[in-house]
Specification:
- The protein has 324 residues and is an alpha/beta fold.
- 35% of the residues lie in helices and 17% in strands.
- The protein is built from eight helices and twelve strands.
- Helix 2 crosses helix 3 and helix 6 runs parallel beside helix 8.
- It is globular and about 60 Å long.
- The relative contact order is 0.14.
- It binds pyridoxal-5'-phosphate.
């Protein structure tokens, strides 16, 4: 933790982490990988500052709480066109591509490909007809393979699936760099950071070190194809139980359900507290749903073994047997 970020020991750690991330995601040479600070929420401002490139508007898909935050922040820097929204059904689905109203002159199209709070995940990649696609992948990056070439920029905070809080990943196509708005803080200018190998200022060195270990762990698991198969099996176990139960249910449209974040509800929400208490007694914590959605939410990131999901289903089944 005391190593200088400019020392050869740390540079070797950062280079290895970048090489492993590039290998895992199949990132081509015409993309920069940046290890930054500020989190995904700071990126909500940093992205328009960097990517407007002389344009004055951007398209955003509004699929939940994190999209709403991105939109609110972007409005400080440009005109936001909400090209698609699932607000009409309380953010329980991803709007079909055929309903999107993209604008020709948008600087980019922004999506949140896994809505952590609502539990809604894109299982397809939007076609933006040449306009750069920008994705907040904070809560499902590295849970499955991604065709990076379909995106102009991918970003995410590390703390869900990658490593400790404090590290922000930005993967950005070279050709989009170099046009930051004049008032962009230098530490948040992608071009300046890219030219300095993410060391314009001190990067979050310890978080990069741990993320590097996670990348190596993922490679040992067989890479993203292998981890995806595990994540599919974990999610299926939980959703199959929810769909078969008349006591618990999933509020999300089946085709758009997240493999990482599984919100679920009791038919009678008066039992929520009793369920959370029973779960806690069985050693299961952090199951309370976000206040925007209510009910419960199981976050089953890469690090959650299938045994953890099996145990949760047992606890739910036992609770249903007593109270159902
Ligand atoms: C957790 C999360 C964030 C939060 O970003 P921070 O700035 O790191 O707090 C943003 N977007 C999504 C999709 C998230 O899941």
């Amino acid at each position: 933790m005391e190593m200088s970020h400019r020392g050869k020991e740390f540079i070797a750690i950062a280079d290895q982490a970048e090489a492993d991330l590039r290998e895992l995601l199949g990132i081509a040479a015409d993309y920069k990988v940046l290890f930054l600070q500020g989190g995904a929420v700071a990126e909500n401002a940093i992205i328009p500052m960097n990517l407007l490139r002389g344009k004055t508007s951007a398209d955003y898909a509004n699929t939940g709480e994190w999209s709403k935050k991105s939109i609110k922040e972007a409005k400080k820097y440009c005109t936001v066109n909400v090209a698609a929204s699932s607000e009409d059904r309380n953010f329980t689905y991803v709007p079909a591509q055929s309903t999107w109203k993209l604008s020709k002159d948008a600087a980019y199209v922004h999506v949140c490909t896994n809505e952590t709070i609502g539990g809604v995940e894109y299982h397809w990649t939007p076609d933006t007809g040449g306009v750069p696609l920008v994705a907040d992948m904070s809560s499902h990056i590295l849970s499955r393979p991604v065709d990076v070439s379909r995106y102009g920029l991918i970003y995410g905070g590390a703390q869900k699936n990658v490593g400790p809080a404090g590290l922000t990943l930005v993967i950005v196509r070279d050709s989009l760099l170099g046009n930051a708005l004049p008032f962009t803080p230098s530490a948040f200018d992608f071009k300046q950071q890219a030219d300095a190998d993410s060391m314009y200022n001190t990067p979050p060195t310890y978080a990069i070190y741990i993320a590097g270990l996670v990348f190596q762990w993922l490679k040992r698991q067989g890479g993203l194809q292998a981890i995806e198969q595990r994540n599919i099996a974990k999610a299926k176990l939980l959703y199959d139980y929810l769909d078969g139960s008349s006591f618990f249910r999933s509020p999300v449209h089946p085709a758009d359900r997240s493999r990482m974040n599984v919100p679920f509800k009791l038919r009678d929400e008066a039992l929520d507290e009793a369920f959370l208490k029973a779960a806690k007694a069985a050693g299961m914590v952090q199951l309370k749903g976000h206040r925007a959605v209510g009910g419960m939410r199981a976050s089953i990131y890469n690090a959650m073994p299938i045994a953890g999901v099996q145990r949760l289903v047992e606890v739910m089944r036992d609770f249903e047997a007593v109270h159902g």
